[in-house]
Please model this.
Amino acid sequence: MGHNLHLKKINNYKDAKRELLKIGVDDVSIPMMAPKMRYWVLKLIDVDVRAANIIKQEMLSKGGEAAVAKWSAGFTRPTTDVLLMGSLKHFNLTIKKLKIQPYGLKGIAKEIEEVLVSIDQETRTIWDLNGKKLTIGGRTLVMAILNVTPDSFSDSGKFNDIDIATDHALKMVGDGADIIDIGGESTRPDSKPVSVDEELSRVIPVILNIRKKSEIPIYIDTQKSKVAKEALSSGADIINDVSAMTTDDKMIDIVSESKAPIIIMHMKNDPSTMQNNPTYEDLIPEILDYLNNKMEIAIEAGIEKEKIAIDPGFGFGKTVEHNLTLLRKLEEFKSLGRPIVIGTSRKSTIGKVLDRQVDERVEGTAATIALSIAAGASIIRVHDVAQMFRVAKMADAVVKGVYDG
Model:
């Protein structure tokens, strides 16, 4: 009989260490061996060809691999993209050499180093929400959607009454919600904006009423700085602006001054036009670049990096194919080093794939939630809280080894 041969999936350094210990490797050898057990492909964009050639030379000399454009050797064009392939050991050895090289390579080395840490470790942070502590990382957090709008694509005005909205929020807390997401302006495709006063009249009474009865963290979904400010004063804790703080130029100051956490989301155009034939040359790099740019602007304005989470904007300016690709490639967003928020609940992509109406999309939502958690999502934004809480708990047990048993 031949030897048994098993394929081993190594997700992170902890997995590598565990497998080495199982076969009795000496503790002293683990730091040398574990970095060889994780393999990545990283892409650098628009690198000076002089720097690219040095990167390739150093990566190859350390046992890794690097691919550059065919014109790089002849220097006939100024830049090239670079694909780097190797284990953590290959990258670490290369980074050391790049840090002492010219042509901006010190900065590139630092960037590679930061990305490797981000993708190998779950982003963990603790948000201080007016004295309440919210830990992001570990168990997946459930953000429960409470739309107090008459034209929501899903709830269609069911929670316009203050008491009904409050009771529903408290029920969702009982069902496992960690955060209540309150929105007073629909962002469904083709939706039209409402006035500041109208939005305030919808959300503030509900926030005040919930806050009287619960300390649950509240997330205000708005593009208006005045609404955000009033919501925070009324008891909201977290801000989400689907325009990434671009619609209202005062929003970034409100976030910075309040020290409230912010979720930066990607959207192409605005809700009234975002589904008018959205096109991309290269979907994921474009979304990554957008989010990274908005993060840099936020940090320059005084918003702490630790207070930022990112949302790739499933359904916002994207076709069905775009949305499916986004989920398929979701793990790539870990390179930004911030917690990932995902909102797929009941959306039209699920309806089109399954040929089901809004109230028949729970299984499709569950599939997208489980896959998102496996890819690194830290917060899930959902309507069906009890069901998705259980989906998240099961996914966490499988993916993260987080369970009560």
